[in-house]
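General statements about sequence and structure are easier to judge against a single worked case. Part of our work consisted of pairing the sequence of a single chain with a tokenised description of its backbone. The amino acid sequence and the backbone structure tokens for this protein are reproduced below.

***
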Amino acid sequence: MKIFARHKVEDCFDGSAVFTYEMTEPWTAENVSILAILGDFEYFGDFPRPLFRLRTSDGMFITGVAGAATCRVILPRTNRDAVQLKLEEVLMADRR
């Protein structure tokens, strides 16, 4: 799984930025679990469309649905570049 594209959706009133990340393949229960290393991770596999969400200590928030090839990422106002780099390193890591 790799990042295919990143699109800025909006800037929030609090200064955070919202992005949609498009991945090269759909999220699965297996590959979504890699996000757990970043922070407080929740996966709701029993939902009709399994939902995942992540909140990190540095203010990033990610939500998505298993089976979709996108996720919504809210980056904090402060330290945004470092937080984004950490996320993208995890998403782009080779897991063979």
In short: The radius of gyration is 13 Å. Helices lie at 29-32, 80-92.
